[in-house]
Amino acid sequence: MLSRRQFVLSSWAASLTPLLKGCGKPLPEPQRWDVAAYRKPEHSQVAILAAQSYDHALVDVITRGLKLFALDVKGKTVVLKPNLVEYDPQGVINTHPVMIAATIDAFRTLGAREVIVAEGPGHRRDNEYLLTASGLYDVLKDYRARYVDLDTDNVSLVRTTSHFTEFAGLYLPETVVKADLLVSMPKLKTHHWAGATLAMKNLFGIMPSAIYGWPKNPLHWAGIHQSIIDINSTLPVPHFAIVDGIVGMEGNGPIQGQAKHCGVLIFGQDFVAVDATAARLMMLEPSKIIYLALAEQFLGNSTRERVEQIGEQVETFKQDFRVISAFAHLKTLI
Predict the structure, then answer these.
(1) What are phi and psi for residue 332, nearest 5 degrees?
(2) Residue 116 in contact with residue 100, Cβ under 8 Å?
(3) How would DSSP label each residue in 249-279?
(4) 230 falls within a domain
(5) In terms of CB atoms within 10 Å, which end of the chain has fewer, N or C?
């Protein structure tokens, strides 16, 4: 494990060069994942629960969602990874701070030893501004919750277990690596490069910008979809997803789109199944979203017959999310 100071002194650029070899070139033909990366279960469960607004009742909804999966967090450290990429007072870019507050409360109720909020914003370097402007700072203060800036956290080099990029390893923040449970808390949004940004894409934010830059360009150069796969397959800790779909974003997401009310939260341990369910809720075809099609091979389930819905049904909350023209093909459902 390296401190940030030690890492910088040893020249991160030189250390990163072999990991970036061949970025943007065609992918190699050999097997693209190790045996250790294969974790696709026979079936997966995804829960959809109604939540019409951001109010104090969210604690009960989130607690109920967590209990559906019998998560054992007693005495454990839980890291919440919201989407805090940018701030626009007229927009709905980020995971709502009330969602984060309710989730802190819910995990503490279930006996978590510590609940940490952590993010590595890819656009702004000024975390203090984002925390204050978004309202998250007040939540952290009121709940006395620790916040970690993943962009500048200490890091560990973890060998990749899939090979859709040519990264031999990924530098992951110490806070993430040492967590007992990492919770991805994305906003339900369309995305102008990936089609949709959900639980899997949200993990771009764990990648430290002190190493990968703002806005994490080496990951983009290696391929958005390919990087999403390698980050998710290499993640060394148990994980869970809670998607903020109370108010999502359609159109030119993830920053410049328009608000879309859905009144729903989506829960699950299989990120592939969660993202496929969220895509169907947005009336997008999961099999046409490249990273989901790749992930379905070995990381999780995306097909209807392998995803068991608990709680409410997708059909109850379906909304026709607009996408930019480049992703019009996602609207043809299979």
Answers:
(1) -90, 100
(2) no
(3) EEBSTTTS-EEEEEEEEEEES-HHHHHHHHH
(4) yes
(5) C
Handedness of CA 319, 325, 328, 329 (dihedral sign): negative
Tell me the pairing of strands 114-119 and 77-82: parallel
Distance between CA 98 and CA 201 in Å, rounded? Answer: 22
Q: Which CATH number belongs to the domain containing residue 93 in this structure?
A: 3.40.50
Which residue, 62, 77, 54, 176, is CA-closest to 119?
A: 176
Alpha carbon distance 190, 89 (integer Å): 19
Q: Which domain holds residue 180?
A: 55-331
Residue 1 pLDDT class (50, 70, 90 cuts): low
For the chain, the C-alpha Rg in angstroms (whole number) is 18
250, part of any domain: yes
The CA distance from 128 to 134, in Å, is: 10
Distance separating alpha carbons of residues 155 and 115, to the nearest angstrom:
20
Residue 69 placed within a domain: yes
Sign of CA dihedral 52, 56, 57, 61: positive
Judged by DSSP in three states, 147 sits in strand
Which residues neighbour 274 within 8 Å (Cβ) at sequence distance 6 or greater? 46, 198, 199, 241, 243, 266, 267, 268
Question: In the predicted model, is pLDDT for residue 70 greater than 80?
Answer: yes
Domain count, the chain: 1
- pLDDT, tens digit, 9 for 90 and up, residues 143-167: 999 999 999 999 999 999 999 999 9
Q: Which residues pair with 323 in a beta bridge?
A: 251
Strand partners, 191: 195
Q: How many CB atoms lie within 10 A of CB 96?
A: 23
Give domain status of residue 75, yes or no.
Answer: yes
3-state secondary structure of 71: coil
Can you name the residues that pair with 118 across neighbouring β-strands?
Answer: 148
